[in-house]
Design brief:
With 349 residues, the protein is α/β, with parallel strands linked by helices. The chain has 10 helices and 5 strands; from the N terminus they run H-E-H-E-H-E-E-H-H-H-H-H-H-H-E. It has a 5-stranded mixed beta sheet, sandwiched between helices.
Length: 349
């Protein structure tokens, strides 16, 4: 074989391999392609005629593909690949829809082109799958499920009022479910925040008492400095238990968290919380001493009143200190060139 012939041969092989790679998914030559053989001839003819008429009247392209199985792919990937490889819908308007049915996998998907996503939203497609397709498929009425689903898609694309009514119904149901979920979440997080509030109250009282003990000389300055970090840690944990449920509940109302993102980007900013936590505790401790007037202000650098330490901190609930040390623990067909970006919905039965 001459050098030129070899080059031509390699070129032909290259293009053949490239073509095979590009045609990974079924080539749709009919508006309804029944590779899974779930339709009889009359059903196949009925579906093709209806969908062909719909395309000629509206220019929207609604195709059906049934396959025996998906292989190693998800139905979302398979549907999107088939849709884009065949260019369903018209180029520029991307007004195609593909219903993909996989028999052995017992899965179905409605893949929607870019141009029809504002109309056949994911919620609308999911509603059709859940309420129309799946109940029929469970009874092995495959034609009925797909046939009625195509009727609904055609209705909603041809009748904006019917589509708006369906979207309003879906929105109302979603809002009802959202409200039920919100009530449950409020109950759960109220308990969560209650635990955090109790922990914060107990440990913050301990923090105030540490400062009071240091200011009246019954708790040594060195021992107090050792106790403060452990107590502040529990105070912060209590705050987290209170704040996190609040932010979760606010998320239900599309609260704008962008102004607080910098706290996550720069965690060191959170250390500024220590200033008011410590400052307010010190101020309250001083006020208690001045208002009650039973103790004088003085500092003991090393020596602590052992009886005071045992009585005040051993049963505080957040610490367990002995007389000389402190410790803390924590728990631990032929398309028009349209494309789809993955809009639609899937279901299984």
């Amino acid at each position: 074989m001459s050098s030129l012939n070899k080059q031509l041969f390699l070129l032909i092989v290259f293009f053949a391999i490239s073509g095979a790679a590009q045609k990974k998914y079924p080539e749709l030559t009919e508006i309804v392609t029944d590779h899974a053989r779930i339709f009889n001839q009359n059903q196949l003819t009925q579906l093709r005629e209806k969908l062909t008429h719909f395309e000629s009247e509206s220019s929207n392209q609604l195709a059906v593909l049934t396959i025996p199985e998906l292989g190693n792919e998800t139905i979302e990937t398979y549907a999107n690949g088939t849709f884009n490889q065949n260019g369903l819908g018209q180029e520029g308007t991307d007004n195609g829809i593909l219903i993909l049915f996989s028999s052995l996998d017992r899965e179905v998907r409605v893949e929607v082109g870019y141009g029809l996503e504002p109309y056949i939203t994911d919620a609308v497609a999911s509603r059709i799958i859940r309420n129309t397709m799946i109940p029929n498929f469970k009874e092995q009425r495959y034609f009925e499920g797909i046939n009625i689903a195509t009727d609904e898609l055609i209705l909603y694309l041809n009748n904006p009022e019917a589509l708006d009514e369906l979207k309003a119904e879906i929105s109302a149901k979603n809002q009802k479910n959202k409200n039920i979920g919100l009530i449950f979440m409020i109950g759960f997080f109220s308990l969560f925040a209650g635990v955090g509030g109790f922990l914060f109250y107990k440990t913050y009282r301990s923090l105030i008492e540490i400062f009071r003990g240091m200011f009246i000389g019954k708790l040594s300055f060195v021992y107090g400095l050792f106790m403060i970090p452990f107590t502040v840690l529990y105070v912060l944990i209590g705050l987290v238990f209170i704040v996190v449920p609040v932010f979760v509940l606010l998320s239900f109302y599309d609260f704008d968290f962008s102004r607080y993102v910098y706290l996550l980007e720069k965690p060191n900013q959170l250390f500024w919380l220590l200033a008011p936590i410590l400052g307010i505790a010190m101020l309250i401790a001083l006020l208690k001493i001045l208002l009650y007037g039973k103790e004088d202000l003085k500092i003991s650098w090393i020596k602590s009143n052992i009886g005071y330490v045992r009585k005040t901190f051993s049963s505080s609930g957040s610490h367990s200190f002995s007389s000389g040390s402190g410790s803390s623990g924590s728990s631990g067909f032929s398309g028009g060139g349209g494309s789809s970006g993955g809009g639609g919905a899937s279901g299984s039965w």
